[in-house]
Amino acid sequence: xxxxxxxxxxxxxxxxxxxxxxxxxxxxxxxxxxxxxxxxxxxxxxxxxxxxxxxxxxxxxxxxxxxxxxxxxxxxxxxxxxxxxxxxxxxxxxxxxxxxxxxxxxxxxxxxxxxxxxxxxxxxxxxxxxxxxxxxxxxxxxxxxxxxxxxxxxxxxxxxxxxxxxxxxxxxxxxxxxxxxxxxxxxxxxxxxxxxxxxxxxxxxxxxxxxxxxxxxxxxxxxxxxxxxxxxxxx
Length: 235
Ligand SMILES: [Mg+2]
What we know:
By secondary structure, the protein is an alpha/beta fold. It has helices at residues 41-53, 68-71, 76-87, 90-94, 100-112, 127-136, 157-168, 178-184, 210-222; strands at residues 2-4, 29-32, 115-123, 145-149, 172-175, 188-191, 204-207, 229-231. The chain starts with a strand and ends with a strand.
């Protein structure tokens, strides 16, 4: 079945083939991380850490979330235990606030016909609650996929995300982790955060807002080709 793209998205033809989705379809498959990209997760984790550890770490001080304990003299195992408990706390996981500018832009992309693929370093054991959070916040659509990491298969998030963007034929990835965008080898947008400062590879564009991301995606689309119709794809 063919679906007509909205006139607002009428596009000039180009030869930018690297951004064409799988099966040669001229549309964007947009890969999106969840935590701290569409979900304001660290804000809530930090509240729990500060309360349980009796410290007062500020968001802008987070240089590396997973080694916070080292910097603040807190034992890693103690911090990791709090983190693991938070991961399986469904009430906690469902309570994260979504960045509203991200929500409205992703919803707009969906109406344009782009395919949305969430690729998160969360363990696959919390897929159900993660999907529920996406649904509650208006971020799941027809053909949207959700991939979480199988810890036994992948030693690092970057390996998992690299393989997943290749498997899905992702055109562009939106992330907050520098080691991931530097490793995946496809066009990537890095949302500027306190913990991702430093050098990035040539495929990466650092931005400070979702408004900037929207403009980059528009620009990328304008280079792809004339998209009057496209087939709906199986996922
Ligand atoms: Mg993230």
